[in-house]
DNA sequence: CCCTGATTCGC
DNA sequence: GCGAATCAGG
């Protein structure tokens, strides 16, 4: 069963919270996953939430999300998509990934640019790092492979061939 | 070039 | 209802 995409009550609720919290459509889309910013904007309008920052003067404020929303969002994201990249793809052909990739570069983990959910962009690796219930929660943030949500390093972990995965190795813990 | 939301309109 | 394409702008 595919993850129930589409505007489920859950997703609409999250969309509402984030939009009202001042988040941009693209960031909300990135957090929801499976939708583009256009989809988010379209939905926002249909819900009648558009033109939030209206007034005598616009409030281009970067709108720093409340700590609560930030954490709740991180949790929601992990619960709906991050926890089982392996399981999700387990029944798919799995993209053309050289299971036995050519000699890897000396680079191991791109921990150098960890980012918070607020700075996560479409082109950034969404591999979760740390405990989503804490403010220290971050995402890998490295350059993701075009068309995929993870960087080369994490994609290897996420899209392991079923044969090499066995039943253990879980998600190799979020490191 | 990066980004923002708004609108249109075929599906 | 949905969202890609497009527009208009920062």
Automatic annotation (TrEMBL):
Pfam families: GcrA. It comes from the Bacteria. InterPro entries: GcrA (IPR011681). Gene3D superfamilies: Homeodomain-like. This is GcrA cell cycle regulator. It comes from Methylobacterium tardum.
């Amino acid at each position: 069963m595919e993850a129930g995409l589409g505007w489920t009550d859950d997703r609409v609720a999250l969309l509402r919270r984030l939009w009202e919290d001042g988040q941009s459509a693209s960031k909300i889309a990135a957090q929801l996953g499976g939708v583009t910013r256009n989809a988010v904007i379209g939905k926002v309008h249909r819900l009648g939430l558009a033109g939030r920052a209206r007034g005598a003067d616009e409030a281009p404020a970067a709108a720093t999300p409340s700590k609560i929303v930030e954490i709740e969002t991180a949790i929601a994201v992990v619960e709906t998509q991050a926890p089982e990249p392996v399981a999700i793809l387990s029944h798919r052909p799995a993209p053309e990934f050289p299971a036995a990739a050519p000699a890897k570069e000396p680079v191991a983990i791109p921990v150098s640019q960890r980012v918070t959910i607020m700075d996560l962009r479409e082109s950034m690796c969404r591999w979760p790092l740390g405990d989503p219930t804490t403010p220290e929660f971050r995402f890998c943030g490295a350059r993701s492979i075009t068309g995929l949500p993870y960087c080369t390093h994490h994609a290897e972990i996420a899209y392991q061939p079923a044969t090499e995965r066995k039943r253990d190795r879980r998600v190799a813990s979020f490191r």
